[in-house]
Write a structure and sequence with these properties.
Elements lengths: L9 H24 L2 H7 L5 H13 L4 H10 L3 H13 L12 H6 L2 H15 L1 H15 L2 H32 L4 H19 L16 H18 L1 H31 L4 H28 L2 H20 L7 E4 L2 E4 L2 H21 L10 H16 L2 H12 L1 H25 L8
Antiparallel strand pairs: 1-2
Length: 432
Amino acid sequence: MNFLKLKLNELEEKTLRLHVWYSLIEGFIVGILALNEFVFIKSLKGNNYQLGLLFQFSLILYVFLIFLNEILKRIKDKKKLLRYTALFTRLPLMLLLFFPRSSQGIAAEPFFHILFLAIFFVYYAGMPIIYPNINYFLKNAYRNEHFGRLYGYATALNKVVMLIVTLLYGILLDIDNFAFTYVFPIVALMGVLSVYLLSMIDFKEEILTSTKEDFSKSLKKSLLNMLNILKNNKPYLHFEAGFMIYGFAFMISVTVITIYFDKALHLNYSSVAFYKNIYNIIAIALLPFFSKLIDKIDPRKFAIITFSSIMLFILSLALTDFFPQNVEIFGIKLYYTMIPYLIFQSIFAATMSLLWSIGSAYFCRSSEAGDYQSVHLSLTGLRAVFAPTSGVIIYELFGFFTTFMLAVGALLIAISLMLWSYRRDKVVKYAN
């Protein structure tokens, strides 16, 4: 790992090796999942509201972190917890092997739409346990001055694998629209392996003074702890308020964008994979720069960059309605107005991968990173309760353009809030 030009201690070197392997395998998994919503609407012919639910499942379960946070802290063997979570939430993907391999077979048994949604509900149920522990393990293993850069390099490798897999999977799906039936069983096994690697990271377990509190008291304590974090750390409160507004804009638009690709732009799998890959290639090139930047500037200033980039890529996408000129090369449909879309989405992908995952850690001490990320993820789940379905309703009532412009308006508010908050309060920097 000398290419990083960092003086790592023994724990950091071991953690980085495990972190890199975890990121590489997760890159494969995320590469497959990148086309999941498009598979559901194009191959399985799911309806718009079911598509909204599929995206909703990926985030809504985080709301339960309000109740899980105190329970997770009391589980002494977090490594075993992660391994069991992987087994129970990843292995059900094997059931996709038994799905019909034709549109007629799916249409004859609408039950498979429900089963598909149920399988991924279980898959995403593991995230409220896995993601906070990622932050907890890494924040305790990496020193503060190396945290952003090491996380950024691992994320860059993750994206390299993801874009290769996304492209190959898109081509495969154009050849066989039901290739997901034999690809996801592989994902199931790799998902178990990646979490197992994560669980091998060494960390210092916090010793709780009491582990015998009444269950209801524990839940109340967890909720009060999260509320106290927001109450007592004003910069973090503003950060999460901005994220809530941004998240609403993102969630009302993301499902509608998938529908837009299919119904308005009439893209095939290879085209969707191409667009995802191009912005991710640029994002990979940008990640080293942004991973250094996030260590140097206030996270709210960093958020302004992130929120501005998503606002501009939604605006660019909306312009395709007015300028639909395109060219087709090797079966890939290229819209000219999608060029700025790709540029701004690449900035968004690079910055949000850092801000969403570790942004909250910059507002607290190392020992508090898990608590702060739990608050962050709980609020993500809270907005996921209503935002994705709201986006589908707005689209069906008013169309694509109105939905996109509503998202742009919300993002302008989020940007203004971050700017006001930064001028009002300064973040206290904590050391390990």
